[in-house]
Amino acid sequence: xxxxxxxxxxxxxxxxxxxxxxxxxxxxxxxxxxxxxxxxxxxxxxxxxxxxxxxxxxxxxxxxxxxxxxxxxxxxxxxxxxxxxxxxxxxxxxxxxxxxxxxxxxxxxxxxxxxxxxxxxxxxxxxxxxxxxxxxxxxxxxxxxxxxxxxxxxxxxxxxxxxxxxxxxxxxxxxxxxxxxxxxxxxxxxxxxxxxxxxxxxxxxxxxxxxxxxxxxxxxxxxxxxxxxxxxxxxxxxxxxxxxxxxxxxxxxxxxxxxxxxxxxxxxxxxxxxxxx
Length: 277
Hints:
By secondary structure, this protein is α/β, with parallel strands linked by helices.
Protein backbone atom coordinates (compact mmCIF):
# COMPACT_ATOMS: atom_id res chain seq x y z
CA UNK A 1 0.00 0.00 0.00
CA UNK A 2 1.81 3.09 -1.28
CA UNK A 3 -0.94 5.61 -2.13
CA UNK A 4 -4.23 6.29 -0.35
CA UNK A 5 -6.91 8.63 -1.78
CA UNK A 6 -9.24 10.46 0.61
CA UNK A 7 -12.05 12.61 -0.87
CA UNK A 8 -12.44 15.69 1.34
CA UNK A 9 -15.59 17.82 1.73
CA UNK A 10 -14.47 19.54 4.97
CA UNK A 11 -17.06 17.63 7.04
CA UNK A 12 -16.28 15.75 10.26
CA UNK A 13 -16.86 12.49 8.40
CA UNK A 14 -14.22 13.25 5.80
CA UNK A 15 -11.93 14.03 8.73
CA UNK A 16 -12.65 10.54 10.12
CA UNK A 17 -11.62 9.13 6.74
CA UNK A 18 -8.47 11.26 6.75
CA UNK A 19 -7.54 10.05 10.24
CA UNK A 20 -8.03 6.44 9.13
CA UNK A 21 -5.82 7.09 6.11
CA UNK A 22 -3.17 8.63 8.36
CA UNK A 23 -3.07 5.50 10.53
CA UNK A 24 -2.70 3.27 7.46
CA UNK A 25 -0.09 5.60 5.97
CA UNK A 26 2.04 5.36 9.11
CA UNK A 27 1.72 1.58 9.16
CA UNK A 28 2.68 1.12 5.50
CA UNK A 29 4.79 4.26 4.98
CA UNK A 30 2.29 5.35 2.34
CA UNK A 31 1.39 8.69 0.78
CA UNK A 32 -2.03 10.27 1.38
CA UNK A 33 -3.65 11.97 -1.61
CA UNK A 34 -6.23 14.38 -0.16
CA UNK A 35 -8.75 15.04 -2.93
CA UNK A 36 -11.19 17.94 -2.92
CA UNK A 37 -13.83 18.01 -5.64
CA UNK A 38 -14.56 21.63 -6.58
CA UNK A 39 -18.00 21.17 -8.10
CA UNK A 40 -18.54 23.88 -10.70
CA UNK A 41 -21.09 24.03 -13.49
CA UNK A 42 -20.03 23.57 -17.10
CA UNK A 43 -21.09 27.16 -17.77
CA UNK A 44 -18.79 28.43 -15.03
CA UNK A 45 -15.84 26.43 -16.31
CA UNK A 46 -16.24 27.16 -20.02
CA UNK A 47 -17.63 30.69 -20.05
CA UNK A 48 -15.60 33.21 -22.02
CA UNK A 49 -17.03 36.16 -20.18
CA UNK A 50 -14.35 37.88 -18.08
CA UNK A 51 -16.52 38.08 -14.96
CA UNK A 52 -17.31 34.37 -15.09
CA UNK A 53 -13.62 33.57 -15.41
CA UNK A 54 -12.90 35.74 -12.39
CA UNK A 55 -15.58 33.88 -10.41
CA UNK A 56 -14.05 30.57 -11.41
CA UNK A 57 -10.60 31.64 -10.27
CA UNK A 58 -12.04 33.09 -7.04
CA UNK A 59 -13.83 29.88 -6.03
CA UNK A 60 -10.83 27.78 -7.01
CA UNK A 61 -8.48 29.89 -4.87
CA UNK A 62 -11.00 29.91 -2.01
CA UNK A 63 -11.19 26.11 -2.07
CA UNK A 64 -7.41 25.83 -2.11
CA UNK A 65 -7.13 28.14 0.92
CA UNK A 66 -9.80 26.26 2.89
CA UNK A 67 -8.28 22.95 1.86
CA UNK A 68 -4.81 23.98 3.00
CA UNK A 69 -6.20 25.00 6.39
CA UNK A 70 -8.16 21.72 6.72
CA UNK A 71 -4.99 19.69 6.19
CA UNK A 72 -3.14 21.38 9.06
CA UNK A 73 -3.84 18.52 11.46
CA UNK A 74 -1.50 17.12 14.11
CA UNK A 75 -2.34 13.55 13.10
CA UNK A 76 -0.86 14.22 9.64
CA UNK A 77 2.55 15.07 11.10
CA UNK A 78 5.42 13.14 9.48
CA UNK A 79 3.05 11.83 6.77
CA UNK A 80 3.47 12.71 3.11
CA UNK A 81 0.20 14.43 2.14
CA UNK A 82 -0.43 15.62 -1.40
CA UNK A 83 -3.45 17.94 -1.78
CA UNK A 84 -5.40 17.65 -5.05
CA UNK A 85 -8.14 20.10 -6.07
CA UNK A 86 -10.16 18.94 -9.07
CA UNK A 87 -13.13 20.71 -10.64
CA UNK A 88 -15.21 17.64 -11.39
CA UNK A 89 -18.99 17.67 -11.03
CA UNK A 90 -19.55 14.08 -9.97
CA UNK A 91 -17.72 11.69 -7.69
CA UNK A 92 -17.51 8.95 -10.31
CA UNK A 93 -14.35 10.69 -11.49
CA UNK A 94 -12.58 9.72 -8.26
CA UNK A 95 -11.73 6.46 -10.00
CA UNK A 96 -10.00 8.40 -12.81
CA UNK A 97 -7.80 10.09 -10.22
CA UNK A 98 -7.11 6.71 -8.57
CA UNK A 99 -5.97 5.26 -11.89
CA UNK A 100 -3.85 8.30 -12.80
CA UNK A 101 -2.18 8.28 -9.39
CA UNK A 102 -1.92 4.47 -9.21
CA UNK A 103 -3.64 4.53 -5.83
CA UNK A 104 -4.12 1.34 -3.81
CA UNK A 105 -7.26 2.27 -1.89
CA UNK A 106 -9.91 5.00 -1.54
CA UNK A 107 -11.13 5.91 1.94
CA UNK A 108 -14.41 7.79 2.27
CA UNK A 109 -16.39 9.20 5.16
CA UNK A 110 -20.15 8.65 5.23
CA UNK A 111 -23.09 9.54 7.46
CA UNK A 112 -24.75 6.20 6.71
CA UNK A 113 -28.49 6.07 7.43
CA UNK A 114 -28.61 9.71 8.47
CA UNK A 115 -27.81 10.76 4.93
CA UNK A 116 -24.66 12.15 3.41
CA UNK A 117 -23.99 15.87 3.29
CA UNK A 118 -22.43 18.16 0.73
CA UNK A 119 -20.43 16.28 -1.90
CA UNK A 120 -21.56 12.94 -0.51
CA UNK A 121 -25.22 13.67 -1.20
CA UNK A 122 -27.49 10.81 -2.28
CA UNK A 123 -25.75 8.01 -4.14
CA UNK A 124 -22.31 9.60 -4.48
CA UNK A 125 -20.67 7.15 -2.07
CA UNK A 126 -22.26 4.26 -3.95
CA UNK A 127 -21.21 5.88 -7.24
CA UNK A 128 -17.59 5.88 -6.11
CA UNK A 129 -17.90 2.23 -5.08
CA UNK A 130 -19.47 1.24 -8.39
CA UNK A 131 -16.80 2.99 -10.46
CA UNK A 132 -13.72 2.23 -8.39
CA UNK A 133 -11.14 -0.17 -9.74
CA UNK A 134 -9.46 -0.26 -6.31
CA UNK A 135 -10.88 -1.16 -2.87
CA UNK A 136 -13.07 1.51 -1.24
CA UNK A 137 -13.15 1.75 2.56
CA UNK A 138 -16.19 3.55 3.99
CA UNK A 139 -16.00 4.81 7.59
CA UNK A 140 -18.72 6.54 9.59
CA UNK A 141 -16.94 7.40 12.79
CA UNK A 142 -13.45 7.96 14.11
CA UNK A 143 -11.63 4.64 14.39
CA UNK A 144 -9.43 4.15 17.45
CA UNK A 145 -7.23 1.75 15.48
CA UNK A 146 -6.97 0.10 12.08
CA UNK A 147 -5.94 -3.36 13.28
CA UNK A 148 -9.04 -4.99 11.74
CA UNK A 149 -8.26 -8.24 13.54
CA UNK A 150 -11.44 -10.00 12.39
CA UNK A 151 -13.03 -9.57 8.94
CA UNK A 152 -16.47 -10.71 7.78
CA UNK A 153 -16.22 -11.06 4.00
CA UNK A 154 -19.47 -11.73 2.15
CA UNK A 155 -19.19 -14.42 -0.49
CA UNK A 156 -21.60 -16.35 -2.70
CA UNK A 157 -18.78 -18.74 -3.74
CA UNK A 158 -19.33 -18.15 -7.45
CA UNK A 159 -16.31 -18.36 -9.73
CA UNK A 160 -16.55 -14.66 -10.59
CA UNK A 161 -16.11 -13.81 -6.89
CA UNK A 162 -12.64 -15.41 -6.86
CA UNK A 163 -10.79 -12.25 -7.92
CA UNK A 164 -12.34 -10.08 -5.21
CA UNK A 165 -11.70 -12.81 -2.64
CA UNK A 166 -8.01 -13.07 -3.59
CA UNK A 167 -7.60 -9.28 -3.50
CA UNK A 168 -9.23 -9.13 -0.07
CA UNK A 169 -7.15 -12.05 1.16
CA UNK A 170 -3.94 -10.35 0.03
CA UNK A 171 -4.81 -7.02 1.67
CA UNK A 172 -5.93 -8.47 4.99
CA UNK A 173 -2.95 -10.82 5.10
CA UNK A 174 -0.67 -7.76 4.97
CA UNK A 175 -2.64 -6.12 7.77
CA UNK A 176 -2.56 -9.33 9.80
CA UNK A 177 -6.32 -9.94 9.86
CA UNK A 178 -8.33 -13.13 10.28
CA UNK A 179 -10.84 -13.27 7.42
CA UNK A 180 -14.07 -15.27 7.63
CA UNK A 181 -16.15 -15.84 4.49
CA UNK A 182 -19.85 -15.42 5.18
CA UNK A 183 -22.50 -17.15 3.08
CA UNK A 184 -26.10 -16.11 3.69
CA UNK A 185 -28.64 -18.81 2.80
CA UNK A 186 -31.93 -17.20 1.80
CA UNK A 187 -35.42 -18.76 1.79
CA UNK A 188 -37.63 -19.66 -1.18
CA UNK A 189 -35.98 -19.79 -4.63
CA UNK A 190 -32.57 -18.78 -3.25
CA UNK A 191 -32.44 -21.59 -0.70
CA UNK A 192 -29.68 -24.20 -1.00
CA UNK A 193 -29.16 -27.34 1.04
CA UNK A 194 -26.03 -27.76 3.15
CA UNK A 195 -24.69 -30.27 0.63
CA UNK A 196 -25.24 -27.88 -2.29
CA UNK A 197 -23.46 -25.07 -0.48
CA UNK A 198 -20.53 -27.26 0.53
CA UNK A 199 -20.07 -28.40 -3.06
CA UNK A 200 -19.89 -24.77 -4.18
CA UNK A 201 -17.42 -23.99 -1.40
CA UNK A 202 -15.15 -26.90 -2.37
CA UNK A 203 -15.22 -25.84 -6.02
CA UNK A 204 -14.53 -22.22 -5.05
CA UNK A 205 -11.46 -22.88 -2.90
CA UNK A 206 -10.11 -25.49 -5.31
CA UNK A 207 -10.07 -22.95 -8.12
CA UNK A 208 -9.11 -19.94 -5.98
CA UNK A 209 -6.38 -21.39 -3.75
CA UNK A 210 -5.99 -25.01 -4.69
CA UNK A 211 -6.29 -25.42 -0.93
CA UNK A 212 -9.31 -26.50 1.11
CA UNK A 213 -7.87 -25.44 4.48
CA UNK A 214 -9.79 -22.14 4.26
CA UNK A 215 -13.08 -24.02 4.41
CA UNK A 216 -12.71 -23.91 8.18
CA UNK A 217 -13.10 -20.13 7.94
CA UNK A 218 -16.52 -20.24 6.26
CA UNK A 219 -19.61 -19.13 8.19
CA UNK A 220 -23.05 -20.33 7.04
CA UNK A 221 -25.94 -18.07 8.01
CA UNK A 222 -29.66 -18.49 7.33
CA UNK A 223 -31.67 -15.29 7.22
CA UNK A 224 -34.42 -13.48 5.34
CA UNK A 225 -32.06 -10.93 3.74
CA UNK A 226 -28.38 -10.91 2.92
CA UNK A 227 -27.98 -7.61 4.74
CA UNK A 228 -29.44 -8.96 8.01
CA UNK A 229 -27.52 -12.22 7.78
CA UNK A 230 -24.21 -10.51 7.07
CA UNK A 231 -24.60 -7.88 9.80
CA UNK A 232 -25.74 -10.46 12.39
CA UNK A 233 -22.85 -12.78 11.55
CA UNK A 234 -20.35 -9.92 11.71
CA UNK A 235 -21.64 -9.10 15.17
CA UNK A 236 -21.52 -12.73 16.33
CA UNK A 237 -17.91 -13.31 15.30
CA UNK A 238 -16.76 -9.95 16.68
CA UNK A 239 -15.84 -8.55 13.29
CA UNK A 240 -13.96 -5.24 13.07
CA UNK A 241 -14.76 -4.67 9.39
CA UNK A 242 -17.09 -5.98 6.68
CA UNK A 243 -15.89 -6.81 3.16
CA UNK A 244 -18.19 -6.81 0.13
CA UNK A 245 -17.43 -7.86 -3.48
CA UNK A 246 -18.94 -5.63 -6.18
CA UNK A 247 -19.20 -5.64 -9.95
CA UNK A 248 -18.47 -1.91 -10.14
CA UNK A 249 -20.10 -0.35 -13.21
CA UNK A 250 -21.98 -3.56 -13.93
CA UNK A 251 -23.94 -3.43 -10.69
CA UNK A 252 -23.71 -5.55 -7.58
CA UNK A 253 -23.00 -9.27 -7.61
CA UNK A 254 -25.63 -12.03 -7.34
CA UNK A 255 -27.16 -11.82 -3.90
CA UNK A 256 -26.04 -8.18 -3.85
CA UNK A 257 -28.66 -7.39 -6.47
CA UNK A 258 -30.44 -4.07 -6.15
CA UNK A 259 -29.25 -1.91 -3.27
CA UNK A 260 -28.08 -4.61 -0.83
CA UNK A 261 -24.43 -3.59 -1.03
CA UNK A 262 -25.40 0.02 -0.41
CA UNK A 263 -27.76 -0.99 2.41
CA UNK A 264 -24.98 -2.88 4.18
CA UNK A 265 -22.67 0.12 3.87
CA UNK A 266 -25.42 2.43 5.14
CA UNK A 267 -26.65 0.38 8.08
CA UNK A 268 -23.44 -1.16 9.36
CA UNK A 269 -21.79 0.69 12.22
CA UNK A 270 -18.58 -1.10 11.29
CA UNK A 271 -16.34 0.17 8.50
CA UNK A 272 -17.13 -1.45 5.15
CA UNK A 273 -14.63 -2.16 2.38
CA UNK A 274 -15.55 -3.13 -1.18
CA UNK A 275 -13.52 -5.13 -3.71
CA UNK A 276 -14.33 -5.11 -7.40
CA UNK A 277 -15.03 -8.47 -9.02
